[in-house]
Design brief:
mainly alpha, 50% helix, rod-shaped
């Protein structure tokens, strides 16, 4: 019995365990993707920077206080 535990090839898991594991993995992957999308959506110009739409399109230009 102890030898069986040392060899992962001899481990037997019910198919429901595998299905639940895949469901949890898929759920966690979805959370990571949604978190990354949310973070990307909140990115923008930082204070002290403005978006220069006229000359440079999507580039950001530093704003210097006088």
């Amino acid at each position: 019995m102890a030898e069986d535990l040392k060899d992962p090839g001899k481990w037997h898991f019910p198919s429901t365990f595998k299905a639940k594991s895949l469901a949890v993995l898929e759920f966690l992957t979805t959370l990571v993707v949604l978190a990354a999308a949310q973070l990307a959506a909140t990115q923008g110009p930082q204070p002290g920077r403005i978006k220069n739409l006229v000359t440079f399109g999507d580039s950001y230009t530093d704003v210097v206080s006088p």
